[in-house]
Amino acid sequence: GGTMDNKLKSVVVEPTQSLLQKWLRKEHNIHISLYPLKNGWGMDVRPTIYGKSSFFEARRFKTFEQALEKGLQEALKLI
Fold first, then answer.
1. Contact 23, 72 (CB under 8 A)
2. N or C: which end of the chain has fewer CB within 10 A?
3. Segment 28-40, tens digit of pLDDT
4. Cα–Cα distance between 73 and 61 in angstroms, integer?
5. C-alpha radius of gyration, the chain, whole number
6. Within 10 A of 9 (CB to CB), how many other CB atoms are there?
7. Strand 30-37, strand 40-49: pairing
């Protein structure tokens, strides 16, 4: 039978999209919003960094996860 050590070796630790989204919001005041469209999803990133507001928006992602992934990528570029 397997031991606990064998089970732990197979676990990969990586942040989930939602944990990263929460961290960006809490630590960097970067907000990622997702919204449904007729044929997919839209996303915008609304950060406030150094007193300046900026904005990034993209539309027409097939899935919620794809829209969130793009939002996370754009948000991380701002840090």
1. no
2. N
3. 989 898 899 999 9
4. 14
5. 17
6. 10
7. antiparallel
End-to-end alpha-carbon separation of the chain, Å? 46
CB 75 within 8 A of CB 24: yes
Q: Phi and psi at residue 65, in whole multiples of 5°?
A: -65, -40
Contact 56, 45 (CB under 8 A): yes
Report the DSSP pairing between strands 56-61 and 52-53.
Answer: unpaired
pTM of the model: 0.71
Contact (Cβ atoms closer than 8 angstroms) between residue 53 and residue 45: no
Q: What six digits make up the tokens of 49?
A: 């960094």
Query: Residue 72's closest CA among 27, 26, 35, 33?
Result: 33
* Amino acid residing at 31: H
